[in-house]
Amino acid sequence: MATAGKQLDRRAAAPRASSDTVFSYEGKDRNGKVVRGEIRAASEAVANATLRRQGVRSARLRNQGRRSKGRVRARDITFVTRQLATMMQAGVPLIQSFDIIGRGHSNPAVSRLLGELRMDVETGSSLAASFGRHPQYFDSLYISLINAGERGGILDSLLQRLALHREKILTIQGKVKKALFYPTAVVVVAIVVVVIILVFVIPQFKTIFTQFGADLPAPTLLVIGMSEFLTDWWGILLPILAGAIVGLMQIFKTSAKARALADRAGLRMPVIGELLHKSAIARWTRTLATMSAAGVPLVDALDAVAGASGNSVYEEATRRIQSSVSTGSSLTQAMNDTQLFPNMVVQMVSVGEESGSLDAMLSKVADIFDEEVDNMVDGLSSLLEPMIMAVLGVLIGGIIISVYLPLFKLGNAV
């Protein structure tokens, strides 16, 4: 019986797992009005059955083939959330909102996603359950808030709060990326320039140096040795480097231990570590504030906060906080025990717990750390720029001087 049940479960799940074929349809609704559109289904029979459930009769289907789902970015989900919130507050029905946003969006992948959500809701699924079928786009925080909004009849206000939350989180991420992009880009360009000099420029000078018949200075010999190494072994070094980069990316994508190690190392870095700490605290407090304001129980809220923290160190700490709170400890004491949160954050959370305004205090903490992250990004850019220029000057200038040292020696001899 168990085996048969598993087989039935697999057969039941198969249509959704393989529903990659797109059918264009034309038919009539219950009022006799001609309707056209596209539907994604496992087969023509499934597409016809789905359209009948939606009230579309006498539909003519045309197989459009299998299409790639494309890429739906976090910014797209934030835009859709804001649009849904605005339309629901304006009194536009949910089904019509999906249709309007889907047709007006420039990304076909988003339009297809909204079409699938619309079909799920039309066939009787709750909005939270429909979002839950796409965990790659909607995390536990998103689904929990939608579920709370549906149960409490305040879906429009929670969508508005969720859109604001996602916009703030994207802003924080953008600031951190802005702080890290400039030094990373300069370092990459510097490496490319050095490699070009060593591979294409130094060999030309090497030909001149061999005609001197004199001993070359040690810096020049070092640069020539590096040039010969790269020139002789580039065919092996390049595939090894590319394989190492791809392998590391794959490891960090699939291994939780590797991500945790990288997160811990990042938090310990000078200057950058402080920026990562503050951005993680801003995300953590804002997420918990959003959940608390929606009336989600603290233990359940912490579960969503852990997944949305964006840092494995804070995710692990949140799990410990959740365990302590579930056994009767206060949130303030549990946060203090992790030794990750500054005293100011812990004290403000304590005031929020005692006064019954936890969500307001957490929002203030998030605003404070948002501003600190913004100030750090500006300060970091002004601090790193002269440092990077100095390093590049020493690196490239050292290579140039080592190349010209033999020429100076030859000039003195003449």
Ordered list of secondary-structure elements with their pairings:
Layout: H1 2-17, E1 21-28, E2 34-41, H2 44-53, E3 57-66, H3 74-89, H4 94-104, H5 108-122, H6 127-132, H7 140-152, H8 155-210, H9 218-254, H10 256-268, H11 272-293, H12 298-308, H13 312-326, H14 331-338, H15 343-355, H16 358-413
Helix pairs in contact: 3-4, 3-8, 4-5, 7-8, 8-9, 8-11, 8-16, 9-10, 9-16, 10-11, 11-12, 11-16, 12-13, 13-14, 14-15, 15-16
* SSE topology string: HEEHEHHHHHHHHHHHHHH
How far is it from the N-terminal to the C-terminal residue, by CA? 98 Å
Rounded Rg = 29 Å
Q: What's the story with the biggest beta sheet?
A: 3 strands, antiparallel
The portion of residues forming beta strands comes to: 5-15%
Structure annotation, total helices: 16
Strand order of the largest sheet: 2-1-3
What would your notes on this structure say?
The protein is built from 16 helices and three strands. The protein is mainly alpha-helical. Strands 2-1-3 form a three-stranded antiparallel beta sheet. Strand 1 and strand 2 form a beta hairpin. Helix 12 runs antiparallel to helix 13 (312-326). 28% of the residues are buried.
Task: Please tag this protein with its features.
mainly alpha; 16 helices; 3 strands; disordered N terminus
